[in-house]
Design a protein that fits this description.
Helices cover 38% and strands 23% of the residues. The N and C termini lie far apart (46 Å). Strand 4, helix 2 and strand 5 form a beta-alpha-beta unit. The strands form three sheets. Strands 1, 4, 5, 6, 9, 10 and 11 form a seven-stranded mixed beta sheet that branches. Strands 2-3 form a two-stranded antiparallel sheet. The chain is α+β, with helices and mostly antiparallel strands.
C-alpha cells in the first residue's frame, strides 16, 4: 500500500476520533463537583390544578425550588421568567421539574396560580405552583430551606423574600456548586442570568448521572 494513503487513513481516523472525543473531554472538564447540602424537608400542598403535591411527586427527578407570590411587584417576575428559561432548556424531559411555593397563599388560590402559569407560559407537567397553609409554607422556607420569607406591610407587595433557587437531585437532596474557597454556594441567584447558566449546567450534570 502506498505510504501516503496510509498516512491519510491514519489522519482521517485521528480526525474522526478527535471530533468524537473533544466534546466529551470538554464536557468532563466543565463539570463541577456538586456539594450535597441535605435532604429536602417533607411537604404537602395543593398545586395550580387542585392536586395534592408532596415530595413523592418529585422522586427520581431533578428539580428547582423557589418561593414567590403572584402579586410581587419586584423580583418575582424576573425569577419566573428565568425559571421558564430552565423549563424551555429541558423541554420534554420527564425527569426535570420545578416546585414553586407561594408565600401569599391566602390570595394565591389554585385558580390564581393557574392563571399565573398561563400568563408565563408554564407548561411543564412537573412544574407545580403550590398553595396551602401560610404558616407551613413560611416554615418550609425559613426553617426547611433557610430561604428568608416574611410578611411585612411596609415592603413592596407586603412580603419580603429571597430571590434564590435551590437545586434538588433525584434522591431529594439539595445540591450546589463549591466556591473557590471550597465552600458550597448552597443556592443560585434566580435574578442573575450568569447564575441561571450555571444552574442549567448543573441540572444537565445531575440528569446525566
Amino acid at each position: 500500500m502506498n505510504k501516503s494513503y496510509s498516512y491519510i487513513g491514519i489522519s482521517f481516523i485521528i480526525l474522526i476520533f478527535g471530533i468524537w472525543a473533544v466534546p466529551k473531554i470538554v464536557g468532563s472538564v466543565n463539570q463541577q463537583e456538586l456539594a450535597t447540602i441535605g435532604p429536602v424537608p417533607q411537604f404537602e400542598f395543593t398545586n395550580q390544578r387542585g392536586e395534592t403535591i408532596t415530595n413523592a411527586n418529585y422522586e427520581g427527578k431533578v428539580y428547582v425550588v423557589d418561593f414567590f407570590f403572584t402579586t410581587c411587584p419586584t423580583i418575582c417576575p424576573i425569577m419566573s421568567r428565568n425559571m421558564v428559561k430552565l423549563q424551555d432548556e429541558f423541554f420534554g424531559n420527564p425527569n426535570f421539574g420545578v416546585a414553586s411555593f407561594s408565600i401569599d397563599p391566602t390570595y394565591d388560590t389554585p385558580e390564581v396560580l393557574q392563571s399565573y402559569a398561563e400568563s408565563y407560559g408554564i407548561t411543564n407537567p412537573n412544574w407545580h405552583l403550590m398553595t396551602g397553609d401560610k404558616l407551613e409554607i413560611h416554615k418550609l422556607a425559613n426553617n426547611g430551606f433557610n430561604l428568608y420569607v416574611n410578611q411585612d406591610d411596609t415592603a413592596e407587595g407586603g412580603f419580603e423574600h429571597s430571590g434564590f433557587f435551590a437545586l434538588i437531585d433525584q434522591e431529594g437532596n439539595i445540591r450546589s456548586r463549591i466556591d473557590e474557597y471550597g465552600n458550597p454556594i448552597v443556592y443560585y441567584n434566580g435574578t442573575d442570568l450568569e447564575q441561571i447558566q450555571l444552574l442549567k449546567d448543573d441540572i444537565k450534570q445531575l440528569l446525566d448521572q
